[in-house]
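Appendix B. One record, verbatim.
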Amino acid sequence: MFAKTLALLVTPFIIASAVVACGPASTPMATPIEPTAPPANTPKPLSAPGLASETTAPLAQSDFAPVTVESCTSVQSEEGEVQTGTASYVYTEPPSRAIALNQHVTEVMLALELEAHMVGTAYIDDEILPQYQSAYQSIPVLAEEYPSREVILAQDPDFIYGGFRSAFGDDVAGSQEELNSLGIGTYLASAICNIGSPDTLEDVYADIRAIGDIFGVPGRADALVNAMSGEVAVAARQNNTPGDALRVFMFDSGDDAPFTATCCSMFTSMIEAVGGKNIFDDVDGRWKTVSWEEVIDRDPELIVLTEADWSTSQEKIDLLLGDPVLADITAVKEQRFVVLQFSSLVPGIRNATAIAELAAAVGQ
């Protein structure tokens, strides 16, 4: 693969109900294959603030110290139960033909200036951040959503990075176990194994550092984590006044019944970081459909609207302001709305800036 997997350690599985719309994956043992050279003449992207100015060229094997990295593993049974665990892999050289499935993990790769190591990406929900557009355009887009397993394997990948369990579904990349048996390394975002409590920025930082280690750029990873944590610290200080937490509702989509972020979503951690409270933080899972009656009863003082292709923020504003049943909600009466891209609400590099935007809205 990249990296030759020499060891595998699996923790006891935790069984819980499914919390994200993802497919099955399983714990792997990869066998080594020789890496293939990455594309030449790949343009260098604009750097993220605070990012170390290391070269984007792939590291020579002689410059790479073997590293052991732990990854989340997750399997969904036919009954809908989810088994999660962790597996440890030894990388003896950085991957050179990586594929990132899901936008938030693609942006982690781009923020670490690893586009020269990539042979594909897929499932982009929003526009890639402007500072990474040049780098992103140098990478083949394999599909608008998930590519088939055949398309993925045709790229001869040595590493696949998934943001959701669905990336390792049977009809997508296949299980982590299967991929590793082919000598293909895998990494699944840490938050997927975080069952029963909210996703956190620590999950994101863990992913950034793990990918930095796998690709031999720990300095870039540390710089990115420091930049993000610094931005969050500044935002958190803006809203440290005493008093009850502001009641906040996240409205993703849905006319007859709203789809929202619940207990264990990244949104819950983000809004709490700036002195707010997710009004559905007592509902299990990450995303659920609730009722307008529940929203009215919990009376949010601020409504966060997602900007997404499937449901624009303006469509949701029109619904909120045009339905007399919703007219008495405090946030609707005061027209107190804030708009965030959908990609800002899943664990990734956008979270820090989104927290700063939420801090400004909460403090109004």
